[in-house]
Structure formats: structure tokens, C-alpha cells
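Sequence and structure are kept together here, with a separate record for every protein. An example record follows, reproduced without changes.
>
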Amino acid sequence: MLDKTLSPAGFEPRLYEGWEGSGAFTANPASNASPFTIMIPPPNVTGSLHVGHALDVTIQDTLVRFRRMQGRDALWQPGTDHAGIATQMVVERLLAAEGVDRREMGREAFLERVWQWKGESGGTITRQLRRMGASLDWTRERFTMDEGLSEAVREVFVTLHRQGLMYRDRRLVNWDVKFQTAISDLEVESKEVKGSLWHLRYPVEGQPGRFLVVATTRPETMLGDTAVAVNPEDERFRDLVGKSVILPIVGRRIPVVADAYSDPEKGSGAVKITPAHDFNDFEVGKRHNLPSPSVLDEEGRVLLAEVEGQARAEPGMADPAFLSSLAGMERFEARKAILAELERLELIEKIEPHTHAVPHGDRSGVPIEPRLTWQWYVDAATLAKPAIEAVETGKTVFVPRQWENTFFAWMRDIQPWCVSRQLWWGHQIPAWYGPDGHIFVERTEAEAKAAARVHYGDERELTRDPDVLDTWFSSGLWPFSTLGWPRQTPELARYYPGDVLVTGFDIIFFWVARMMMLGIHFMGDVPFKTVNIHGLVRDERGQKMSKSKGNVMDPLELADAYGADALRFTLASFAGPGRDVRLGRQKVESNRAFVTKLWNAARFCEMNGIAPDRAFDPMQATTPLARWIIDAGNAAIAEATSALESFRLDDYAASLYRFTWGSFCDWFLELAKPALTGPDGAEKDEVKGAAQHVLGLILRLAHPVMPYVTEELWDRFGYGPEGSLIRTAWPEPVAVVGADAARAELDWLVGFISEVRTVRAEVNVPPSVTVPLLLQGASAETMARAARWIEPIRRMARATEVLAHEGPAPAGVAQAVVGEATVMLPLEGVVDLAAERARLSKEHAKVEAEARKIAQKLANPDFTNRAKEEVVEETRGRLAGAEAEAARLAAALSRIAA
């Protein structure tokens, strides 16, 4: 007998161990079944499960379990990413607690320590994925630093270099001064900072007393200025174009150039150009062939090597000794010193408060420094062309399609991809330098030495490039490196290209695009046919989750509290393609009630002697009730299948909820009670047969999203003979004789009782009160149906009888329309309808006023343009809710109109 209380903790670990141990998750390359492949976005080995992962995993696992039940040979490829900077930071922090610096250890000893940490602590997130029920093929688990994947990385690097698509260049990068490495745009977050806009006077050469005023938020970089730019259309400065100004502090002459980058409406209309320390300035510098001296080193300290010696004691300029005093000074201390000196020289025109976005390292938390350095780059523009074409021609389709525009916008304006990082943990770049700086790019050191012998004619000392590769480079190979490439394995032939990639919109460019470019280039085909983009998980108010807001939700804590099935179903129920998910604890709790409802329905069946009956043939059903629920099951199969094939998990979850809670529990089991408690016979047997058939159908339909409770019930009931539900076939519809007539009959009954219940609830009729129901304008068929179903109508609609009524409606009735008839509830002396009408009118007016107020707010451009996106979305949601409530109240009023 099933336990009275659902306790997921009592069966979830046991079931998962059983699935994994039995090989239920394992793909079979020798199978004749059609393959279905999903590559997991490899989580960082340092990571732990957050709500974004939980959504991602729920979507993927639901799709994989669905396709597996359809008979596909499903490979859900697991693995983790070595996460260069994140992992190095974790281990450095551990060493710091021991009083050890990695530079003292040396590279080799440090890497040994990282591998040790990975072996001891790097499996946290994979254990947490198991906790969520993820049916990954763990026998094929990969790590981006595995030797097989490292071989793929070396092969791709060397091949791209030989094809001229990998090269070394000196360009600006995002530089993290704390970790002293280049970082990707994804590792940069903008923070609003309250600062100042300093208007500085640059003396115009040859025009004593005239100054060109530039506005800047970064006076510390002025040492590296090589020009001042003005807009060519700006009349104020037209006579200065082509002339020079004197750079304060340094005393160097720098030109005034005309460039559209300068916005006449911003600041002073003139901008200082520092090509080595600003991305926009770098482009201006290229357009005007300006020098690019670096004035900050890798630690963000003043570097004078490229500007020292240029200082001249111009009248009104700082003494060269002051410039020398800045050497080695931290950038923000240098800012204070420079501003003090400019103040002394009376070269500050004015200072304005200024709030602006400042890029910070997402892990270091310090402001990022644009820095001009030598790095390795991939010619992304060349690789992007086939990837763009693949999406344009539909070889890869984005769901929803609108994200293709984001993909195109990035890819059509793609810049060279910086792939080198100044770290120790990662794939070390396979490049060696000769004593004269000549570069040898080879797969191994032995091959590099052989190439050097050919080049020099004798043995030479080679030095390996100390940098490692960006983690996006190795994860960009994930769809084929995990399958054995560059070796031609059976898995590579069978499971590439994949079917679906499930990921968030935030890494379309950083990961999806990389996989597209590298997959097409090295495999000759796209890595996946569909990219299913999901939204962010936000809190109930639509706000992004953050520790500072205190609204972060731990999915593991929710799974422990309510069961993994309840959490998964909640995430799925809001997971429309591309739509953000609003997650709240109350929603998970509410969906635990749904899981419990299924459990209790199964327990009710068990208590009433309903058990798997392989002899029952649903196509032979004769009673309208059995035919109706079997036919409704067919519709549920069609809805669920269509929704999953279209990646509409919200529609899939909604169809499950409607059919399970509504059709099966609330209606079929309630309507079946008289037969179940009545004498044995054909009707009772058929009701029991239909019940076990539909319960088994529900368990199969719900299994992809609620694997634990469905597997437990399947096993406890003894469904089979296949055994485990995870191996059971996806349900197929069955032919139902007389389905149309049964549907018409039962749909009328359900609609009739539902309308009566709605009216009673709206006018507050006490549950203990029973009243007759009057049918006005009812056909003979409707009256006959009412007579046939009088017992459930009395029991479920709290009615004494159903009577035909001719003529006008009597006084004191509430009413509703069902089909061609009007059903009336005589309530005079039972309910004060005038008071109810007044109450509903007051509520309706209040809700309508609130809806108008919200609509006016949304119509105000000041609000929609200035408010945060999540605030606007929350407001739209409030409007939709108010409008729906107003419509409900209006309908209620119409039922008791005077």
C-alpha cells in the first residue's frame, strides 16, 4: 500500500542509483535506433548548482527522457569545464590561507596543486546534477583538460595557425589588473559609479592664453594622449583642426584631429585620444595613424618607459621631475597626484558630478583596464561567414527565431578573437620562441625543436609561450572533442551533429557562435540543428537574482524541501522558449501539491482495487465515462508530444496539469465513485480498467519532467512488463469507438457542474445549502442528459433537482449559460443578491481603476524609457492581472444582473 504521505526523500536517491547502475542513461553506438544528441553546456568545475543551471538541466533532461521513451538512442553528453581563471583563483585563495604564493611555488608545483584540488573538490556540481535527476550518460563524462580533449585543442590551434587563421598581434584587451591577465567580454560586468567629469585645459600651441578644453573621467591616462579629437562639423573648433595643443604634465605637442567619434553634445565637445588605454580611442588612433604609448603596466601602475624623455619644460607645464615622481604609482593614486598638479597649474576648467558605467572584472571586482598587449588572435571574421550562412539557410535554427537577429548582429560585426590568457591553469599555447623571437607553432615540443633545427640549421634554445588559451576556445570544440576528435571514432560518426543545444541567451556569442564557427570549420557541418534559447530565472517580482538583493534561491534547498519533481515541474511550467522564469518558493510549494495530487490519486486507485490490467482493451470501452477519459488521454498525448517537439515546456506542463488534476482527478475519479463503490459487474470492471489505463498513461506522459514520483508509482503499481518506466515507450493514442458522442456528453456535464459551482462561489452560497436548478430554453437532449447524470449533479453541484423552466426568469435568481440553455439558481431567501451585486460592483470599479492607473503608467515614455526592464515587465504583468480580474468580476455581475 502506498504511504499516506508523499515523501520524495524516501525514494529519490534509491531510484537515481538504480537508473544509473542499470545503464538506463547510457547511449549505445551499436544501436539501430535513430540517435538523439544533446551536449550539456559544461559547468565550471568550480561551480555549484544555481537556479540557472536547474532550469537548463530541467529542459535538457525533459527532452532527453522524452526522446529516449520515443525509442531514440539518446546521448546526453556530460562534462565540466576547467574554468581557467575561476579555478586558478580558487586554488590561489587556498594557498594564500596557507601563506603560500603561486609564484614562489613555480608553475609545475602550482599545477599539481590544482589537479589535486580538482580530484578532491571538483565533482560537486556533477553530484548536484544527479540530485536534480539529470539522466546524463555518466560513462562518457569528459573534462576540458582531459588528454583527449587537450589533443583536440592542440590540433585546432596548430591547424588554424597553418591556415593563417591564428596569429599574434598587439591590440587592446580587457585587462584585469588584479589577476594580471586578459579576460573576455563575458567576464566583464558594468557597474554604475558616481564619479567626476573633469574639464581640462590643453594649451593651444602658438596661441598664448587659448586653451582647448577636453572632458574626461580618466585623467590618469592623459600621459598617453597622442591627439585631441573634435567633430568635423563642430564650428567651435574648426580653426584648430590640423594644429597642435600641448599635453599638460608631459609637455608634448599633440595634434587636433577631426573625427566623428567626438560628440559635440557631450562633455566639452573635445575628447582626448589615448589609443593604448581606450577601445574607442584605439580605433581613432588607427584612423589617424597615431602612436600608442602605454602608460600603465600589468598591475595598473604608472609606466613611463614609452613617454619618458618626451617631457619638456614648456611655460606653465609641470616640471619633468614631477613626471618622474609618478613612476610606479598606482593608477588611482596617480589620478589624485595629476589632478593636484593640474590644479596648481590652473589647468582645470571645472569639475562636474558624473555617474557612468565602469567595466569591472566579474571575479576580481576591480575596474578593468583597456591595455595594449601582444596576444594570440583567431580570424573570427573568416570563420563567422559559414556560421552566418548556416543560420540564414536554416541548417541551424534558433528557438525562438528572434534570437537569430542577436546572432547575426554579433557575427556580422565580429572582431578578432583574443584567445590567450596570462594564467597558468589551462591549455598552454603550443608555441615556442627562438632566440631571435621566431615563432614555432607545433603540436609538441619535439616537433617544435625539429622545426627549429630546419629553420636555424642547428640546435637552438626554445622558450615556450607561457600563456594559456581562453576557456571558450576549448569549450568551443565540445560538440566534437568529447566524441573523440581528431580520431575518427564511431561516436563521432553517429552523434555529430547534435540535435539540440539548450542554453541561455547570454552566451549566444561567447559559446554558441564559437561552436558554430569551429564545428563547421573542422567537421564540415553544424554542431547542432536547433538552438533552444531559454530566459533568465528571476524572482517573483521579475528582478534578477543577486546576493546583494537577498533574493537568491538555492535549487538544492528547494529540492530538499519540496522534492526534485516539484522544482522541475515549476521550472518547466514557466519555461516558454526565450521567456524569463519568475521563480518563487510559493510556486514550488504549489506544484508540490500537484505532485501530491498525483500520488493521492494513485493511492485512491490502489484503495479501490485498481491495478494494472494487461487484458483491458481501451478500444473496447462501452460506457460514456470510460470512452471520454480514454479519448481525453489521446488529446493529452497529442498536446504533450506537440509541445515537447516544439520546445514549449510551459505548454507541456500545462497540458499535464489540466489532464491529471482536472480531467482525471477532479472529474473522472469523482464521476467513477458510484461505480467503484457499487456492486461488481461490467460497469465497475470497465471503470477500473479505464482508470488503470489512464493512470499508466499519466505516469508515462509526466515522466520526462517528474521522473522520480512517476517511476516510484510505476514500480509500486507493477506496470510493465518492460520494468523501469525510464525504459518504457512513450504513449500512443488508441482508437475510441463513439468518442465524439462520449465527448459531447461528458463535456456538457463538466461544463454544467462547473458553471453552477462558479455561480455559487461568486455569490457566496454556503456549501451546506442545496437548491433546485432551473433550465430555461433547454432542449430535450439536454434535459435527458440532466436526468442521466442527476446523481453526480446533486453531489457535485449541490443541487436538489433539475427542472425545466418556461417563461421569464423568476426574481432572486443567479444564472449562467450552458450550451443553448440558461441554468438558474433560485436564491431568494438564501443569499442577499442585491448586497452581492453591490459588493461585486464595488470590487469591479476598484480593479478597473487600478488597471487604468497601471495602463497610464505604461503609456508614459518617461517610465518605460527610464525604468529597469524587470520593473516594466512586472508592471505589464500587474496590468494583465488587473484586466483579467476586471473581466472576471464583470462576468460575475452579469450572472446576477438586476
Observations:
- The first helix runs from residue 12 to 21.
- Residues 31 and 73 are 7 Å apart (CA to CA).
- The first strand starts at residue 35 and ends at 39.
- The chain has a mean pLDDT of 93.
